[in-house]
Design goal:
Oligomer: single chain
Radius of gyration: 18 Å
Helix content: over 70%
Structural class: mainly alpha
Distance between the termini: 15 Å
Strand content: under 5%
Amino acid sequence: MTELCDLVRQAVWTVMLVAAPMLLVGLLVAAVVGLVQSATGIHEPVLALVPRLAAMATVLLITLPWMAERLVDLLVQAAVPPS
């Protein structure tokens, strides 16, 4: 039972670690675009969505090998029983 709890804890931590770069970039881009929209008075939803999606897609492409490595490590650890 403790192995299962440890595995779930590590899985949750890995998911948070893998998702963090994209979410942080999305948050920063949304904040900058929000400030620009407030300053200019242009409140078009598409202008907020497109830069955020582009930035998150770029970060995904850059960090994809690292993300895959983390997830494979987690799956290998889950598949190998502890000795």
